[in-house]
């Protein structure tokens, strides 16, 4: 596929993004947003021309982190939202498949969204409908009665989920992921042979001791740190909070069972698309973990109003080009690592 064709496909996807956003409640069309979209088109053309190579040259691209949730019609017909978690964006599987096709993304790991909390029925339905396109990451339920452990076993053994997400902010107030239930869930994941993804939204340094304890006690359980551990570029030499988070991220590389998601770049960058200030972070993570322990993820649908789905993919290529990654390293980050970690879930495509 030529670079011109890639650009045309992106324009088609961006148009669909604008159309979908125009029907969302609370989203308004304005002259400013139109100008921002035009500026995004211009920036993306520059990114495409300066990346390592057209991303379509990579054999298989796997999005290791995204979400879906019910459309309003689906929510009304059997897949209700968790109270207070009604989404403001289109996160339907139909929209996702359209974006993936137009961006040239071959497969994805669907992470159970908070919008449906512990009701996995929608994601399970989509996984069964598209078994060669998607793998699933369920959400750990740290209920003190231990019911979450039974649910985890069912989701993995019966419904085929390939990973589980720990959200430390779902634990009861004052409780840590290392409590009795958390340790049992973590150990069970290892027994089942699935990775544990950990979301440290409030800062990786806050959860460093918990992660170290869990990894030390359960060395056979694989861990994935979401979104570069939520590390952001430091503002200056006195930015102690971000320095601590980065130190925690690099320190955890001593555990060979830990992987890192190079994902949700718009959440981490202090700059606009294509998030060039993430380059030094990626360079340090590659040096510490190796590209075979890093995987790209878009964080769909949250990324759509930021830079578009195709933009998420191309920003990753652009950032990689700034640190002169080899083609092999880039292929690992953009698909090979995820494919190997999740046991060739997309092999039959």
TrEMBL record:
<dbReference type="Pfam" id="PF04909">
    <property type="entry name" value="Amidohydro_2"/>
</dbReference>
<comment type="similarity">
    <text>Belongs to the metallo-dependent hydrolases superfamily.</text>
</comment>
<dbReference type="InterPro" id="IPR006680">
    <property type="entry name" value="Amidohydro-rel"/>
</dbReference>
<keyword id="KW-0378">Hydrolase</keyword>
<dbReference type="GO" id="GO:0016831">
    <property type="term" value="F:carboxy-lyase activity"/>
</dbReference>
<dbReference type="InterPro" id="IPR032465">
    <property type="entry name" value="ACMSD"/>
</dbReference>
<protein>
    <submittedName>
        <fullName>Amidohydrolase 2</fullName>
    </submittedName>
</protein>
<dbReference type="GO" id="GO:0016787">
    <property type="term" value="F:hydrolase activity"/>
</dbReference>
<keyword id="KW-0210">Decarboxylase</keyword>
<keyword id="KW-0456">Lyase</keyword>
<feature type="domain" description="Amidohydrolase-related">
    <location>
        <begin position="62"/>
        <end position="342"/>
    </location>
</feature>
<dbReference type="InterPro" id="IPR032466">
    <property type="entry name" value="Metal_Hydrolase"/>
</dbReference>
């Amino acid at each position: 596929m030529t670079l011109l064709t890639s650009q045309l496909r992106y324009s088609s996807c961006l148009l669909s993004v604008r159309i979908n956003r125009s029907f969302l409640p609370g989203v308004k069309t304005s002259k400013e947003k139109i100008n921002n979209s035009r500026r995004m088109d211009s920036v993306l053309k520059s990114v495409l021309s300066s990346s390592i190579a057209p991303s379509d040259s990579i054999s298989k691209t796997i999005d290791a982190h995204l979400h879906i949730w019910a459309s309003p019609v689906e929510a009304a017909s059997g897949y209700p939202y968790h109270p207070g978690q009604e989404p403001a964006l289109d996160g339907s599987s139909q929209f996702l498949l359209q974006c993936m096709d137009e961006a040239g993304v071959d497969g994805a790991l669907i992470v159970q969204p908070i919008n449906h909390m512990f009701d996995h029925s929608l994601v399970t339905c989509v996984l069964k409908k598209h078994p060669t396109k998607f793998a699933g990451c369920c959400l750990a339920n740290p209920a003190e009665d231990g019911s979450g452990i039974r649910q985890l076993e069912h989701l993995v053994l019966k419904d085929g989920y390939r990973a589980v997400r720990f959200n430390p902010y779902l634990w009861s107030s004052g409780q840590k992921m290392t409590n009795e239930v958390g340790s049992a869930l973590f150990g069970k994941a290892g027994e089942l042979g699935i990775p544990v993804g950990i979301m440290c939204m409030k800062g990786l340094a806050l959860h460093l001791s918990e992660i170290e304890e869990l990894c030390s006690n359960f060395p056979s359980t694989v861990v994935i740190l979401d979104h570069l551990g939520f590390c952001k570029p430091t503002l200056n030499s006195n930015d102690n909070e971000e320095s601590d988070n980065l130190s925690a991220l690099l320190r955890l590389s001593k555990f060979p069972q830990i992987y890192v998601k190079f994902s949700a770049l718009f959440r981490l960058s202090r700059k606009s698309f294509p998030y060039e200030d993430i380059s030094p972070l990626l360079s340090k993570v590659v040096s510490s973990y190796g590209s075979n322990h890093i995987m790209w993820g878009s964080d769909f649908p949250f990324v759509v109003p930021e830079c578009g789905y195709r933009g998420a993919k191309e920003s990753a290529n652009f950032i990689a080009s700034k640190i002169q990654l080899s083609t092999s390293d880039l292929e690992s980050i953009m698909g090979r690592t995820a494919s190997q970690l999740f046991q060739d879930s997309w092999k039959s495509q």
